[in-house]
Structure formats: structure tokens, C-alpha cells
Amino acid sequence: MGKPLVQSIWLAGCSGCHMSFLDIDERLLELLKLADIGATPITDFRLGHFPECDIGLVEGSVTNESNIEFLEELRAKSKLLISLGDCAGWGCVPFMRNFFPLTEVMEHAYIWTSSTVDGHIPDDPEVPKFLETVRPIRDFVKVDFHIPGCPPSADTIFYCLSELAQGRHPDGIPQNMLHFD
Ligand code: SF4
């Protein structure tokens, strides 16, 4: 049997969870003995081009229709889907826009800012339509496992991926690896 294939995407996030993934540093080589790493935002990922994989990682919450398309495709192609970090898990930083109506958020971003002159809200059909509220990925697809933290530490990511790649479910993430910030 070959090594499991890991793929990842990012939705509405800051990329910090993937930076933490890269922070496992030379242990990436250990991980590559256990698993292959396919499409990621650090390499390349495009809608309609994900192969089937064993472990799909998702950073970020769902804030527009394009996010839903990527999420649904990765879910359909992944045996296990993992929410990587708190934006994917419950909304975290992007979730803060939910305290305001979407129109107000858009006006603030594109019109009211002091550096903007003659601003307008983008209305090109190619710009993905924003959802009224930011939502965690579990509102759209089944999630098999959550790696908590903002971002999860490199140690936690390495531990969870190593366990999952060896067919074990990391039921108990050691307390000292958990982040709740
Ligand atoms: S959980 Fe934190 S580090 Fe990860 S994408 Fe969200 S804001 Fe960034």
C-alpha cells in the first residue's frame, strides 16, 4: 500500500495556519516518509484539479461562494477532512464581520476608508459573491477532525498529521500542544 496523500486549501484565513504547517521545518522530511503532500496553496491548487486524497486540510472559514466550491470539492475527494485552525473550526477572526450587516462591511472596506477616493463596491461577475455571514466549514460539509489554535502550533500539526498518516485517530492531543488563542 502506498503512502497516504495529503492536500490542503485555504479559504478566508490569514495563511497563518499554513505558515505554522511550514514551521514544522526539517520534520517535513519525517512527514514525507509517512505521507505524500499534493496540492496546497504553497504549491498550486485549482478548482476541478484535486485528485482523490486521504487527508484534506482546510484553513479558513467560509465567506464567499468560491470558498464553498473549493470546500465541497476537497470534501468530495478526501477520505478524511480536517479543519486546520480556528477560522475553519468556528470562524475566529473573519467571524468578526458577522457583527455588522454585509453592506456596511463592504462600504467600510471599499468606500469609507480614508485612503479611498471615488471608491465603489466591486460588482464584476467574476468576483465571488460574499455570503451574508462568515461561517465555519462544518456548516457546509462533514468534518472528521479539528486541529485547534490560531494558529495550531507546528508541534500539534506534526503530531496530528503523523498520527493520521499512520491510520491512527489522534483522539487525545496532548494538553501542552493545545492552543485556545
Ligand atoms: S486560525 Fe488564526 S492563524 Fe489560522 S487562518 Fe485563522 S486567523 Fe490565521
Give an account of the 3D structure:
There is one protein chain. It contains 6 helices and 7 strands, in the order βααβββαβααββα. Helix 2 runs parallel beside helix 6 (154-165). The strands form 2 sheets. A 5-stranded parallel sheet has the order 2-1-3-5-7, sandwiched between helices. A two-stranded antiparallel sheet has the order 4-6. The model has no long low-confidence stretch (mean pLDDT 93). The protein is of the alpha/beta class and 181 residues long. Iron/sulfur cluster binds next to helix 1 and helix 4.
Write the topology of this structure.
Blueprint: E1 5-10, H1 16-22, H2 27-34, E2 36-37, E3 53-59, E4 62-64, H3 65-77, E5 78-84, H4 86-90, H5 102-112, E6 130-135, E7 145-147, H6 154-165
Parallel strand pairs: 1-2, 1-3, 3-5, 5-7
Antiparallel strand pairs: 4-6
Helix pairs in contact: 2-6
The chain binds iron/sulfur cluster.
The computed structural class is alpha/beta
Bound ligand species: iron/sulfur cluster
CATH architecture: 3-Layer(aba) Sandwich
Helicity range of the residues? 25-40%
CATH superfamily heading: NADH:ubiquinone oxidoreductase-like, 20kDa subunit
Could you say which overall geometry the principal axes of the C-alpha atoms support?
globular
